Amino acid sequence: MQVVLYRRNSKNQLYYYSMDDRQQSLFHPHALTIRWGRKPEGGREKQFYFSSEKEKNAKIRSLLKAKLKDYQVLYSYFKDSAAGTKTPGKGNGDSLVSRIS
């Protein structure tokens, strides 16, 4: 899963906020990485670790709900584990972003 959000400030400068779960932790089965800053790859980074996918998904939902108040979606990619889709904007996450926003 990868989501990239963006917003502009009053000086028309872009700020990015991205999250992905591609990097797994050696000691935790589920991980979430967020990056934010003036560049798409992020200036700062924070990682969250979870013992279950349910906990990770709850954190993703809460972060998206908070950030979608100020940010717009630039890109989203979700792999639907049930259907096996791997295309941008398709799968279980597309509806997740639209339901939260």
UniProtKB/TrEMBL annotation:
<protein>
    <recommendedName>
        <fullName>WGR domain-containing protein</fullName>
    </recommendedName>
</protein>
<dbReference type="Pfam" id="PF05406">
    <property type="entry name" value="WGR"/>
</dbReference>
<feature type="domain" description="WGR">
    <location>
        <begin position="1"/>
        <end position="69"/>
    </location>
</feature>
<feature type="region of interest" description="Disordered">
    <location>
        <begin position="82"/>
        <end position="101"/>
    </location>
</feature>
<dbReference type="InterPro" id="IPR008893">
    <property type="entry name" value="WGR_domain"/>
</dbReference>
